[in-house]
What does this fold into?
Amino acid sequence: MNFKDKITNIPTIFKIIIGFASSLTLSFILGVQDLYVHGMLLGSIFALGAIGITLLYAIVNFAHVAHGDFMTLGAFIAFPLVASVINIEYVSYANDFSFTGLFPLLGLDQVGIGPFTFGYSIILAIPLTMAILALIAVSLEILVYRKLRNRGSSDVMIAMASFGVAILLRGALSTLFGTQIRSYDRVSKPFLELGWGIDVPPDLLFLGLVALILCLLTHVVLQYTKTGKSMRATSDNPDLALVTGINVNKVIINTWIIAAGLAACAGILIAVGSAQMVPQMGWKLLIPIFAAVVLGGVGNAYGAFIGAVIIGVAMEVSTEYMNPAYKLGVAFTIMLLVLTFKPRGLFGGKD
Amino acid sequence: MDFIFSIFNYLSTYVVIAGIYAIFSLGLNIHWGYTGIFNIGISAFFALGAYTAAILTSATPSPKMFEDFVWGGNLPETLGIFNLGIDMWYFVGMFGAVIVCGIAATIIGWITLKLRDDYFAIATLGLAETVRFIFLNEKWLANGSRGMYRIPKFLGDWFPPAYYNYFYGLFILALIFVLYLIVQKAINSPWGRVLKAIREDEIATSASGKNVFMFKLQSFVLGACIMGIGGVVYAHGIRYLDPLTFDPLMATFIIWAMLMVGGSGNNKGAIIGAFIVWAIWTWTDFLPGFLSDPNLKFLMIGLLITLVIIFKPEGIIGEKKVKLASKSADNTDNLSTKK
It folds into this structure.
């Protein structure tokens, strides 16, 4: 047994733990532990998007280019729910107007609970937004993607359709809300000192926690429910699944619901975490998220999670050594390297 | 008389811009229409072509070129490495742009074209954003977000400024014609037939002994070079470049809409689509109130692409149906499309 075999025989979970521990130690040695923790928390938010894309890859077998815009849409659906004042200024239309959001109308306009910058309304808005976006995703599936599949269009054609949908969603958001930078109501709060030179905004801890809980929920759904089992069966072998009586269309709709729900949540979390949102933010998020999917192995939900955390850490830590504007370039470079040397990703996936 | 003159002026500007987009649309048609590779990073080649030409043909940094100086700042160390007075001839700039685009396309294509089609799409998207960030942040290279000014006109001394656009419009139309002939020649050659075969069935093509990867790479590089030429023509026509020019909307999405509307797989369709979509885009400016909102146009572009894919995937002028030689072959074709 040579050295390479010994390496390959270590169970994956130990490899992940060893990799995590050693990289964390390295970050302490280099003095970038602060950025490392930030990156992990951000990465777990990216993971929500990456899991959705990878599930769609596994089951519907196409690259969902509109996923970034799904995330933006999620952030913007929550906006009229939670914002106390919503100004709409049209570029070339005289009648600007403003109105009050739903939850503040019901008396939930308090922001800055505890150490956080936001209020209870965001927490209430998350499940509601997830449901609305899931509904939108299912109607898009029925109106657009199912038609194309029934016609026998190629996967690239369906990806192209999702590209059209991406532009459509972004255009709809710009038309409705304008292109100015917006944010949820917030009050500034101090960073939390965790010791060892790690300062994080309390928001980010909360957001990372929400993201982790949702990832765990997805894990439970995939492993232990009938829906999840039929999804995994369809992913492994669609023809066999069809023969054994699994309703593939239903499985696909379930996949859309999960993917869109996670994307909606990711959008809100990112908008809260970065304290701003613009209609074009989703298109840029597409790069780190796809990089995470490719790194973890396409079609592998667990790989997508780990990949997203790695990408998040790499992007944040890189800001110590180079211009922060090149964060996206770092994610892109990692993706190209993975595609060059290990095209099936770290944990293996579909071809 | 003035009124007629202003209409002609307007039309010449329209022809210049729509013509520039037609060049991109032609390039994209080679990628998507003939080979079926999904390039959503057109703006990368647009930017590389335009900036390369601008850097190569601009005079040595002079006070006139940079806004910094106008507003009292220091003359930046812009174009530091090229500070040799690369006051090059127009066609040298074009040649350089084609080379740069070709190299970028070869690198990206070499890595991703062996893999699934959608990896390639994401890689082109990543390239587009990276290129834009580089030009935005590397001030020494192309003056960052302030952009490059006073890029020389093509044969600017030969024509009085008032009539220059007429000349440039005619020049672009001639260029489109030449590029059209080149692409048409390439597509109707055996090489082009292999591309179409790849689009229809990759596995069957490689089974008949063709190196699918090399053909895809060649197609990608050829299309990217044509896009680079589009960028060059843009730089000398608009004479101002900044990273915002290469926003995905105006440098990628709209070109996709042009190709899809005109008809992918048909070069005439690609050119006509550019003129139609640009007409819709600019002429809606005259609509009253809400209808001329630029964001609404954005929405319409997305709607247009989606609706064309669902209801009329072949566009206005689709690809010419190839006549099959024998009747029996015709029948098998019918059977295979029905399934």
Notes: The first strand of chain A starts at residue 86 and ends at 88. Chain A has a mean pLDDT of 82. The radius of gyration of chain A is 21 Å. Chain A has one domain: 30-341.
